[in-house]
Amino acid sequence: MFEMLTWAQLGLHKKPQGILNINGYYEPLKAMMDLMTQEGFLDECNNKMLLTSDSIADLIGQMEAYNAPDIPALIKKQNA
Q1: pLDDT for 5-64, tens place per residue?
Q2: Which H or E run contains 37?
Q3: CB 47 within 8 A of CB 6
Q4: How far is CA 23 from the centre of its chain?
Q5: Distance in angstroms (rounded) separating the CA atoms of residues 80 and 68
Q6: H or E element: which one contains 30?
Q7: For residue 80, what pLDDT is reported?
Q8: Which CATH number fits domain 2-65: 3.40.50.450, 3.90.550.10, 1.10.10.10, 3.40.640.10?
Q9: Beta-carbon count within 10 A of 50 CB
Q10: What is the DSSP secondary structure assignment for residue 39, as one 8-state letter?
Q11: What H or E segment, with its residue span, contains residue 33?
Q12: Residue 16's pLDDT is what?
């Protein structure tokens, strides 16, 4: 997961990630992500790419409604 958020922060993709947060299991992870944002290790817009819900239907709905932030790529993709 962190690799994908790093790739997003570098501008390599704009896809959200979803966490099914049953019984609040991932609350500590969400708190850590918020702290990373406060401390400047993770951009706010990239933190918002991590979608969470305790409902599969709601999480899928969030993903379908997701609008990617317009952030410039820090690394350019090269053709192989």
Answers
A1: 667 777 777 788 899 999 999 999 999 999 999 999 888 888 888 999 999 999 999 999
A2: helix 27-38
A3: no
A4: 20
A5: 26
A6: helix 27-38
A7: 52
A8: 3.40.50.450
A9: 19
A10: T
A11: helix 27-38
A12: 87
Count Cα atoms within 13 angstroms, Cβ side, for 55: 4
Using alpha carbons, list the distances in angstroms from residue 9 to 32, 34, 35, 38.
Answer: 17, 15, 16, 15
CB atoms within 10 A of CB 28: 9
φ/ψ (deg, to 5) at 51: -90, 135
Q: What are the tokens at 18?
A: 């979803």
Cα–Cα distance measured from residue 72 to residue 76, given in angstroms and rounded to the nearest whole number: 10
Domain chopping of the chain, boundaries: 2-65
